[in-house]
Amino acid sequence: MKDLINTIQHLLEAFFQEVGDILLFTGDVVRQFFTAPFEWKELVRQAYYIGNKTLPLIGITGFIMGLVLTMQSRPVMESFGAESLLPGMIAVSIIREIGPVITALLCAGKISSGIGAELGAMKVTEQLDAMEVSGAKPLNYVVATRVLATTFLVPVLVIMADVVGLFGSYMAIAMNEDLSFMLFLSLAFDSLSFVDIIPATVKTFIFGFFIGLIGCYKGYTADRGTESVGRSANSAVVTASLVIFIIDLLAVQFTSLLGAS
Amino acid sequence: MEIVIDIKHLKKAFKRNEVLKDVNLQLAKGENLVILGKSGTGKSVLPKCIVRLIEADRGEIHVLGKDILKLEATELDEVRKKVGYLFQGGALYDSMTVKQNLVFQIRRTQLEKNKAELRDLVEEALANVGLKDAMQKMPAELSGGMKKRIGLARTLILKPSIILYDEPTTGLDPVTAGEISELILDVQQKYNTSSIIITHDMKCARMTSNSIRIMKNGKFEVVGSYDELRHSDDPEVRAYFS
């Protein structure tokens, strides 16, 4: 019993230590956003690299997401004679919840782990130290640029996943009935309001920020030794995914307060 | 004799492991000082403390007359520009070509230079290490020895007055290790740099050192020239030279 209490105590201490360290790191990174000179060229390079690397995955996943969701929902809606509500239901589901969360989780797996491994390797091979000694702040050049790139890229990727997902949904409907794409869009967007779109969009920026931040934090604080590179990547995915769900939960509560539910 | 690095009673511990207990050291201008010691004795911690990559717990470190433990970030950057650091593996930036690695080093200090001037600086630095043709190569295409040479070129491009070498010949074959040692000597003679060289390689120590210090129990317990220490009465000291 005493061992169990000790273990729980250590786990809690480690958890709060980690949360505290992440908060301090966040403060340092945010300060770099406003510290001149900002590395715009590196920001663009990172944004291009991240977008280019993730776009095909998001596109394919988004399309399948819309297609499968519609195919699975159709029999239920049919049994109630409510097929005409299908485009609206799918649009609300994708834009409010599934699109942002699935895209963010994919980005956590692809981007956050990539950043964690890259920075971890840079730490192990002393590249971050070399940068520090040369007077170039790695927090500014390496971290701030990646965090800003994900903050602005993830919303773009979510919008793309939403659009492709809706197209996938239309394809699933069009397989069974004669519905024009324009009518599908009209039915879909009739069900949406700004209260659906704005909070969903705002939370994607927060997802993006934390996807980049956690990847950078895990890589930046990696131990010396090659095995820590893999550990950083793995830990970045797990932590980023957990944070995405927590943010989503908070966003749902916030949206409920706005009266959207 | 002008002293460029003056360390007094330096202490550094990692949790309960006291790595540097009472380190005192003076480096004179133009001197090559070699530090020997068993693995895990904190040899590599010392140069990191000198440039404040690792914060010392206690003591004083004066670099070029500045008490670096008390400097603000911008003042520290100014001192760091005058102190070159050759990391164990070269620490080249993987995502950049050799040329970009070198330009990255100087772009903050020499922004006013145009492309042709930057190219000349890069070419000069690479010529110094005999790798002028490697300009467009990526670090992954380079051998261990080439990486260290490029690392040295990247250090030299800022024309530092002090260079800290962290195990410059570790992992290299004897021929390449000898070439790197010669390069260290060339750099000292050409630019009149002062250097601290952390190494296990006795050939490197023989070729490059003006004086040697052996680290033991977190202190420098043995000081002398290569020849003095080779004939030391202490069998533990002589073991380094056998």
Descriptive report:
The complex is a heterodimer of chains A (261) and B (242). Chain A has one domain. With 261 residues, chain A is mostly helical. Chain A has 8 helices and no strands. In chain A, helix 3 (86-124) runs parallel beside helix 7, helix 3 runs antiparallel to helix 8 and helix 5 packs across helix 7. With 242 residues, chain B is an alpha/beta fold. Chain B has a single domain (3-94, 160-241), classed as P-loop containing nucleotide triphosphate hydrolases (Rossmann fold, 3-Layer(aba) Sandwich). Chain B contains 9 helices and 10 strands. In chain B, the strands form 2 sheets. Chain B has a 6-stranded mixed beta sheet with strand order 6-7-8-3-9-10. In chain B, strands 2-1-4-5 form a 4-stranded antiparallel beta sheet. The radius of gyration of chain B is 18 Å and the shape is globular. Chain B starts with a strand and ends with a helix. The chains are: A mainly alpha (261), B alpha/beta (242). Chains A and B meet through helix 4 of A and helix 2 of B.
Task: Please supply descriptive tags for the structure shown above.
heterodimer, A: 261 residues, mainly alpha, B: 242 residues, alpha/beta, Rossmann fold, six-stranded mixed β-sheet, four-stranded antiparallel β-sheet, P-loop_NTPase (chain B), transport (chain B), ATP binding (chain B)
How is the secondary structure organized here?
The complex is a heterodimer of chains A (261) and B (242).
Chain A: H1 2-33, H2 40-79, H3 86-124, H4 127-133, H5 138-174, H6 181-190, H7 194-220, H8 227-258
Chain B: E1 3-14, E2 17-28, E3 32-37, H1 45-50, E4 58-63, E5 66-67, H2 73-81, E6 83-86, H3 98-107, H4 115-128, H5 144-156, E7 162-166, H6 174-191, E8 194-198, H7 202-208, E9 211-216, E10 219-224, H8 226-230, H9 235-241
Parallel strand pairs in B: 3-8, 3-9, 6-7, 7-8
Antiparallel strand pairs in B: 1-2, 1-4, 4-5, 9-10
Helix pairs in contact in B: 3-5, 4-5, 5-6, 6-7
